[in-house]
Design brief:
This protein is of the alpha/beta class. The protein is built from twelve helices and eight strands. Helices cover about 50% and strands about 15% of the residues. An eight-stranded parallel β-barrel has the order 1-2-3-4-5-6-7-8, surrounded by six helices. Helix 6 (about 95-115) links the parallel strand 4 and strand 5 (about 120-125).
């Protein structure tokens, strides 16, 4: 683990309203600074929620998983660069040309504005998809790990900065693709939390030990189990667990 816990946790603002999202940002800011804004919140609150989160002091990981023709994704990436987000996502299944278009257009727009380009992160396989779904519903042959490595190599060839992947593929990506990629890991659940619809999960501590750069945590923090307390209590508990492991590893 190379980062402090405060900088390795991204809280998923998968809530229905802007008020709910900003309440969470204000409550959690003493513990985390990075927040994922995804499709549910964008669809209900509009893209202006990005500015709202930034104005409350948070950093934004925009997770809309762009997957369209290259020209359309290039335009979307150009617009995102103007939003001052720190990261945004494209889907590897859109292909090399599409991913490269996102990198190029966001780089050009950021340079024009004299600002830092947001990191472009490529989604491999959703953590709700397991081996059976990949083989028998999507009709993609082979094993999950090999497919994720293949898609990650494709993303690197397109010039992306990092990969979104299940914690179970982190080691393979570090060893077989690149040791230096930013790896953002959803499908992370503390041992005391429900897995919900995630199928390939791991605890935050184990994901960071495996080599994740950031872990994305949603419902265990935003809607913690009874007995844990509120969102800030859950965030503090997770951070304490990570810090104990981090200090133990350093020692």
């Amino acid at each position: 683990m190379k980062q402090s816990p405060q900088h390795s946790i991204i809280v998923a603002l998968d809530v229905a309203t802007a008020d709910d999202a900003l309440h969470l940002v204000d409550e959690l800011m003493p513990f985390v600074q990075f927040f994922k804004v995804g499709l549910e919140l964008i669809s209900s609150a509009g893209i202006g929620i990005v500015n709202d989160v930034l104005s409350h002091g948070g950093q934004v990981f925009l997770d809309c998983k762009f997957h369209d023709i290259p020209n359309t994704v290039a335009g979307a990436a150009r617009a995102v660069a103007r939003k001052h987000v720190q990261m945004f996502t494209v889907h590897t299944l859109g292909g090399l040309e599409m991913m490269a278009a996102a990198v190029k257009s966001s780089t050009t727009e950021a340079a024009r504005l004299g600002i830092q380009r947001p990191l472009v992160l490529a989604v491999t396989m959703l953590t709700s998809i397991n081996q059976n779904v990949m083989n028998n519903e999507l009709l993609i042959p082979g094993d999950m790990g090999s497919e994720v490595v293949h898609l990650s190599k494709l993303a690197v060839a397109a010039g992306v900065d990092g990969i979104i992947t299940s914690p179970h593929e982190i080691k393979a990506i570090r060893e077989r693709v690149s040791p230096d990629l930013v790896i953002v890991t959803p499908g992370v659940r503390p041992a005391w939390a429900d897995k919900h619809d995630q199928k390939r999960v791991m605890t935050p501590v184990d994901a960071l030990i495996c080599g994740a750069s950031y872990v994305v945590i949603g419902r265990p923090i935003t809607s913690p189990p009874s007995g844990i307390g509120g969102p800030s209590d859950a965030a503090k508990r997770i951070m304490d667990e990570i810090m104990d492991a981090w200090n133990g590893k350093k020692g």
